[in-house]
Design a protein that fits this description.
By secondary structure, the protein is α+β, with helices and mostly antiparallel strands. The chain is built from six helices and twelve strands. It has two domains: 66 residues, Arc Repressor Mutant, subunit A, CATH 1.10.10.1320; 116 residues, Jelly Rolls. The chain binds zinc ion.
C-alpha cells in the first residue's frame, strides 16, 4: 500500500474533473491501488453530487429536451480494446506502446533513461524515467512542479524511501539526489511543468542535454 498520497486539494480537483489530463491520469493510476484515496474520492464525489443536487433545476426548452433524448438514443461509443500489460495501472495502458522492457528508452545517461508518453496536455509533459539499479542521479532542484508516481522498484533520497504506488511532489524548494534500490531498476511516471535544473558538478556537465 502506498505511503505517500496526493493532497486533498488534488483529489478534490480530480473529483471535480478539473485536473489537466496528465495529472488526472497520474492520480487515476495511484487511486487504482490505494484504498485510502479511493475512500476519500468516494466522499468528494458524493459532496460534489450533493452540490449539484442542491442547484435550482435549469429550465430546459423543448428543443434542448429533444436534443438530450436524441443523444440518449445514440449508440454507446466503441471502447478501444486494449491489450493487457500486466503490472501496469489500467489508466496508463492505452498510452503504453509496449511493456517497460520493450519501450524505446532514450538515454540521458547510463543511469537514467526516459520515455515520453504521448498525452494531450497543454501544460504538462509526461515521461517515464528509468533509474538503473543502485544508481544515484545528479543532485537537482526543480524550476517548477514535478509530480512522480513510482511504478516499479523503489528509490530513496536524503530522508525518505519511495515504493511502487507512492505519489511524490517535488517543487522549487526540493533539492534532492534520488537513488534507485540495488535490487532492481526503478521506473517512475513523471508529470512536469518545467525542465529539471541540475546543481552539482556532474549536473552542470549534463545540463545541456536535459530538456
Ligand atoms: Zn493514496
Amino acid at each position: 500500500m502506498a505511503n505517500y498520497h496526493p493532497t486533498d486539494e488534488l483529489l478534490m480537483a480530480f473529483s471535480a474533473g478539473q485536473l489537466p489530463n496528465a495529472l488526472g491520469l497520474m492520480l487515476a493510476c495511484h487511486i487504482e491501488h490505494c484504498p485510502d484515496c479511493q475512500r476519500k474520492m468516494h466522499q468528494f464525489n458524493e459532496l460534489g453530487g450533493n452540490i449539484l443536487d442542491s442547484l435550482e433545476p435549469l429550465a430546459l426548452d423543448e428543443g434542448a429536451i429533444g436534443k438530450l433524448l436524441e443523444r440518449l438514443d445514440e449508440p454507446e461509443p466503441v471502447v478501444e480494446k486494449v491489450e493487457m500489460l500486466p503490472g501496469i495501472p489500467r489508466p496508463l495502458q492505452r498510452f503504453m506502446p509496449a511493456h517497460y522492457d520493450n519501450l524505446a528508452w532514450q538515454g540521458m545517461s547510463s543511469s537514467l533513461k526516459e520515455f515520453t508518453l504521448d498525452i494531450d496536455d497543454d501544460r504538462y509533459t509526461t515521461k517515464l524515467f528509468r533509474i538503473a539499479a543502485g544508481k544515484q542521479l545528479p543532485e537537482h532542484t526543480h524550476k517548477g512542479n514535478e509530480f512522480t508516481l513510482v511504478m516499479k522498484g523503489s528509490f530513496s533520497d536524503k530522508t525518505c524511501n519511495y515504493h511502487a504506488g507512492d505519489f511524490v511532489l517535488a517543487d522549487t524548494s526540493t533539492r534532492h539526489q534520488p537513488q534507485a534500490a540495488n535490487d532492481s531498476d526503478c521506473i517512475c511516471l513523471a508529470v512536469m511543468d518545467a525542465p529539471l535544473k541540475l546543481t552539482g558538478t556532474f549536473g552542470r556537465m549534463l545540463n545541456p542535454f536535459m530538456r
